[in-house]
């Protein structure tokens, strides 16, 4: 992250690396971390009243310096008018672990409206992880930075599912806390249902038995998507395919939903890693081809890439190898949906019977190309 030249609001779910990014990659003259409740802040190695931190931020900005205010959603709004008076002097980088802070800052009545440029920080792009670790399967679960110190393989993830389930519940609880929401039983059950494979709002509504039916379920899923907990993948129809945004969280929550690992303690016999690979690789393919990633539930096509009304590509994604008959059958099915057909295998390059065949080496090369274009490597 180069030296910022304008006031910027970074926002995204907790534990996606915003603080690390700010501390190590954003040159600054002052770093302030606002504490819970907004009454105090950490400046350097000291805990000070937030009023003192505000004065220090103002002093840096008036001198034309760069100040970082982390956990800006906790920053008392009573100081927003004062902050606005400092613009356009200096550069203020505000970071918030809340999607709600974006709406507050850019609300029509906000004194900060028009002063900040928003910058969303998501989990790490698959290609940026793959380009550095070289393992197409491990890169899927390492997209969420908090998981990197805890697991070194998908098998270790399965074996440690019970311990990681406790972390997952706490992490999602933090997300709700920063959004000033309560992680109610209804929200938690909705998240677990999606992790288990209930992707349609109608199915979630039926499983939850909500009084408001489909409308209530749709509202819950939409809110969870805006909070960064879920992701809504467009389909070729009118539905949205809801999935847990983080692949590693999705797998852990699947283990909790299906096998109650936090209560029973036993490691789950299996995890739906193929599902996570399908959507994760699909994201990279969409970036590479400059298209929109879609899913085709009716035809059960793993990845469909569209641009406008054109269906450019359809892909079949597998963990294991394709036999030539399997490849030929898949390509015939894919070509009924899109202009071109591609095969992807995480174990070896598929037979060249379609328009493109991508194995581990080709995926790695694609990832390197994308990462280089963004200056990541």
From TrEMBL:
<protein>
    <submittedName>
        <fullName>Archaeal ATPase</fullName>
    </submittedName>
</protein>
<dbReference type="InterPro" id="IPR027417">
    <property type="entry name" value="P-loop_NTPase"/>
</dbReference>
């Amino acid at each position: 992250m180069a030296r910022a030249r304008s006031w910027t609001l970074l926002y995204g779910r907790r534990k996606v690396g915003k603080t690390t990014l700010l501390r190590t990659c954003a040159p600054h003259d002052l770093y302030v971390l606002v504490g819970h409740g907004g009454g105090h802040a950490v400046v350097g190695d000291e805990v000070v009243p937030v009023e003192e931190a505000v004065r220090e931020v103002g002093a840096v900005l008036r001198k034309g310096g760069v100040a970082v205010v982390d956990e800006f959603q906790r920053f008392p709004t009573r100081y927003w008018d004062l902050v606005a008076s400092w613009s356009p002097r200096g550069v203020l980088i505000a970071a918030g672990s809340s999607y709600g802070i974006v709406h507050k800052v850019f609300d029509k009545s906000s004194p900060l409206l028009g002063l900040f440029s928003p910058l969303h920080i998501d989990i790490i792009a698959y290609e940026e992880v793959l380009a550095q670790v070289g393992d197409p399967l491990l890169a899927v679960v390492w997209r969420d930075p908090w998981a990197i110190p805890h697991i070194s393989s998908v098998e270790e993830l399965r074996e440690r599912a019970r311990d990681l389930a406790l972390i997952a519940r706490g992490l999602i609880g933090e997300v709700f806390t920063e959004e000033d929401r309560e992680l109610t039983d209804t929200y938690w059950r909705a998240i677990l249902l999606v992790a288990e494979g209930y992707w349609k709002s109608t199915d979630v509504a039926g499983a939850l038995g909500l009084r408001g039916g489909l409308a209530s379920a749709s509202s819950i899923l939409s809110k969870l998507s805006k909070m960064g907990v879920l992701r809504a993948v467009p389909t070729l129809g009118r539905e949205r395919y809801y999935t847990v945004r983080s692949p590693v969280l999705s797998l852990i929550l699947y283990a909790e939903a299906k096998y109650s690992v936090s209560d029973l303690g036993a490691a789950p016999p299996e995890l739906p890693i193929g599902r996570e690979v399908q959507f994760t690789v699909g994201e990279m393919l969409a970036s590479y081809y400059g298209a929109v990633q879609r899913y085709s539930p009716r035809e059960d096509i793993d990845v469909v890439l569209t641009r406008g009304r054109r269906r450019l590509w359809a892909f079949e994604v597998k963990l294991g190898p394709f036999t030539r008959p399997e490849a030929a059958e898949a390509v015939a099915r894919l070509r009924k949906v899109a202009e071109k057909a591609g095969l992807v295998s995480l174990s070896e390059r598929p037979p060249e019977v379609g328009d493109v065949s991508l194995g581990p080496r080709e995926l790695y090369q694609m990832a390197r190309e994308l990462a280089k274009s963004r200056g990541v490597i």
